[in-house]
Amino acid sequence: MARSRPDRFGRLRRPHEIRPAWAESDRFVPERFIQPVLAYMRTEASGGVVMLLAAVAAVAWANSPYGDGYTRLWETPLTIDLAGVLLLEHTLQEWVNDALMVLFFFVIGLEIKRELVTGELTDRRAAALPIIAAVGGMVVPALIYLAFNAGTEAARGWGIPMATDIAFAVGVVSLVGTRVPIAAKLFLLTLAVADDIGAILVIALFYTEDLALTWLLAAVAGLAVVVGMQRLEVRTTALYLFVGSWVWLALLESGVHATLAGVTLGLLTPTQAFYRADALAPSARVLVARIEEYAGDPLQDEDPRTIERINVLLRDINRLSRESVAPLERLEHKLAPWSSFLVVPVFAFANAGVRISGDALSGALDDPVLLGVFLGLLVGKFVGVTGATWLAIRAGLAGLPSQATWRHVIGMAMLAGIGFTVALFVTALSFEQPELTDSAKIGIFASSILAGMAGFVWLRTAPELLDAAGSEEA
Fold first, then answer.
1. What is the DSSP-derived secondary structure letter of residue 99?
2. In this model, does residue 15 exceed pLDDT 60?
3. pTM of the model
C-alpha cells in the first residue's frame, strides 16, 4: 500500500494528491489577497472597470497643472533601426496604437472566428437579428455624424460612432443581474461582434493611406506562409510569431493599418485540435503505463537514464494534453487577459487624455464634431438598433430572443451607444488636428456615460426572471 509522504511543511500528503499552485493555496497572502483579485478578474465587468480607471487617470493628468507632461510623454519619439535596412520612426502613442493594439485585434479575430465556427454566428437564422440590428446601429450613427460634418474636413470621422464597446456594454448587463435573459445577452454579444467586423472592414477600406503595393504583396506572402505551415502541421509557436511579426511589419509599411494583421491572423487560427479528444485518454494511459514501468520505487530509483526517460514521457504527456485543445481556444484563454488588463488600459491611458476647458463645454452645441459623435452614439445607435430589429421581425426574417421582450431590446440598444475602445481608435485614424480629436473624445466620453447609465436604469426596471420552478433565477 502506498505511503503518505510529508511535504516540506511537514504535512502528510497522499501519493496521488496534486499540490496546488501558490496562488491557489490556502496560505494567508493567496487566500486573502491573490484569490479575490483573480476571482474579480474573471467577472464580466472587470476589464471595463480597469479600462475606465485608465481613461479617468489620463483625463485627470491631462487636465492637471502637469498636463503638458502627459502630452510630452506620448509624443516621445521612439525609433527602431533594423540594421540600416528599415527605419521605424514613431511616437510612443503611435507604437501603442500600431503595435500594442495588434494583440487586441488578434483577440478580436479569435473571438470572431470562434463565433463563426462554434458560436452564435453558426446558426444563420439565430444570428440574423443581431447582425441586422448591428448594421442599423452602424449606418444610422454614421449618417447622423455626416449630417453635421458633410463637406468639411471633419467628415473623415464618420466611422467614429459606429462601434459598440463590448467590455463596457457586457459589464453593465452583468450589473443588472437576472433581469436580462441569457438570450438577450447573447443578442448583445453577437451584435457587438458584428459591430467589430463592420469596424474592421471600415478601417481596412476607408482608413488606409496610400498603398505601397510591394509591401502589401509581402504581407499577403506572409499570410500564405502561415496557411502553408498549418497545412504541413507545423506547430512551433515561435515560427508563427516570427511570420506574424513579418505580416505586421509589411502591413505597417504598406499603408494598410497594421492592426489588421492581428485580425487576419486571428481568423486564420485553427479551431480544430491536433489530437482528437477521444484519443487523449488511451494515449495518456499508454504513456503513464510506461512511466510506471521505468519509475519503479521513486524513493530508491536514482538512475539518471531512468529519470531522463521519465522526463521525455512527461514532455510527451504535456504536449498531448496541450495539443488536444484547439489552438484558438488555447490562444484566446492565454491572451484575452493580457488584452483586457494590459493592452486596452494602456491604449486608453495613451489616447483618452483630453483637455476639457470651460470654453469647450460652453461651445459644445456649436461643435459639429462633438455633436456628430455624441448624437451618433447616443441617439443613432438606439434608433439604428431598435429600428433595424423592428424591421427584421416585421419582415419575418427573425424573432425576438427567447424570454426577451421589447423592453430588453430597447435596453440593449441603449447600451450599444457605449463606444470607447474602437471609437477612440478610429478617432486617432481620422484626425491629425488636436482640436478635432479632442472634440471627438469629449463626444465619446459623454455619450458612453449617458448610454451606460440609461441602459442600466432602464434594465433595472425589468422584472426578475423566474426559472421553471417559479423561483428567481440564481
1. I
2. no
3. 0.80
